[in-house]
Amino acid sequence: MTKGEPVDEPSAGSTPAVETRGLTKRYRGGQLAVDGLDLLVPRGSVFGFLGPNGSGKTTTIRMLMGLIEPTSGGARLLGSPMPRAARQVLPKVGALIEGPALYGFLSGRDNLVRYDAADPTADPRTRTARVGAALDRVGLTAASGKKARAYSLGMKQRLGLAAALLQPRELLILDEPTNGLDPQGMREIRTLVRELADDGITVFLSSHLLDEIEQVCSHAAVMAQGRLITQGTVAELAAGTRGRLTVTTPDTADAVRILKEHGVTDLAVTGDRITGEPPATQLTDGTPTDLADLNAALVRAEVRVRGFGTERASLEDAFVALTGEGFDVAG
Ligand SMILES: Nc1ncnc2c1ncn2[C@@H]1O[C@H](COP(=O)(O)OP(=O)(O)OP(=O)(O)O)[C@@H](O)[C@H]1O
C-alpha cells in the first residue's frame, strides 16, 4: 500500500468484500498454515471456503479478522486493509468463530443483552428493540426466555448469529457454522445464510463439507495444505469437470466402436448400458465438442439409442480431480 492512501475507503459495491494478496502464516513452531493465498470474495456472494481439516481455513479467518498477524502478504476487508483499519471495518463485519461464548445460566435474550451492552457504540435506549429484532431474525423469539444451557447446539449457533447481527452488517464471516449440528440444525443455519444473503449481506463461510457448499454458496475457494487450489463460482467449478457419458442401447458392440471413433475413452459396458469419458478435445473456436454430434453419429450408424446423456458433474468430482483426494460429503 502506498503512503497517503486512505485507510477507510468508501464501501462502494465495486470493492471486493474480501481480498487477500500473498497472505501467508507461519506459526512459531515453523508450521506453514497458510501459503501465499490470493482470495477474492465478490460483494453479495455466499462464499464457501472449503478444505479438509487442517488446510488453513481457521488461520485465514483469524488473519482476516485481525486476530493474528500474517507472516507476510495482506488482506482487505470491505476495501480496507486489516488489521490497520480494524476499528473502521470491524463494526460492519459480523463473525462467528469457533462457536459463540455464552453464559449458560442466562437466557438467550439476556446473553444478547450482554453482547449489546459490551458494544460501546450501541445506544442503550434502543437495546431492547435491537435484541428483539436479532432474536426474530434467527427464529429464537419463542425460546428467548430459556436458559442458554438448555439450548440445542443449533440454537446456540443461531444465538451466536443473532449476536453477530445486533448491528447492521455488510459482511458475515462464519467459521464452520454447521460443525457438529444434526441435519435439522444444519438446515436451519443454511436457510438463515440464504436469507441473510437475500438481505444483501456478503457471507463468507468455511466448511469441510462439499455438499453444504454446493447447497448454499454462489462462489467457493478450495484449500489444501495451506494453499489455494481454485476459486470461482460454484457453477464454474462444477463445470470444470464433465460427468461421464452414458448410452443405453441394445447394439452395444456397434455403439462402442462409434464412440471410440469419436474420441470417447475409458468405455465400460454393463448389459445394455455403456459409459465412458466424453472427448476433452475442443473445436477450433474453443467450444467443447457437442455431445449432440456423438448422438447423431450413433444414429447415422443405425445404432438404436434408448438413452443418451451425461451424469451430472458435481463439485465433488471437480474437487477430487483438483486435489486428488476425497472430501467428506455428508454431514
Ligand atoms: N496456534 C497454532 N500454532 C501452531 N500451529 C497451528 C496453530 N493453529 C493451527 N496450526 C496448524 O496450522 C495448520 C492449519 O490449521 P487451521 O486450523 O488453520 O486449519 P483448518 O482448515 O481451519 O482446520 P480445522 O477445521 O481443523 O480447524 C494445521 O496444520 C494446524 O495444526
Provide a compact summary of the structure.
It contains 11 helices and 15 strands.
Tell how many strands the DSSP assignment holds: 15
Q: Please mark out the parts with pLDDT under 50 across 5 or more consecutive residues, or reply none.
A: 1-11, 283-287
As a percent range, the share of strand residues is 15-25%
CATH top level label of the largest domain: Alpha Beta
Average predicted confidence as pLDDT: 86
Biggest sheet details: 6 strands, mixed
Distance N to C terminus: 42 Å
**So, CATH architecture of the largest domain?**
3-Layer(aba) Sandwich
- Estimate nothing, just give the exact number of structural domains: 2
What series of H and E elements makes up the topology?
A: EEEEHEEHEHHHEHEHEEHEHEEHEH
Number of helices: 11
Radius of gyration over alpha carbons?
Answer: 25 Å
Assign a percent range to the helix content.
Answer: 25-40%
The helix/strand class is: alpha/beta
GO molecular function, one term: ATP binding
Domain ABC transporter: 18-250
Keywords: ATP-binding, Nucleotide-binding, Transport
Family: Belongs to the ABC transporter superfamily.
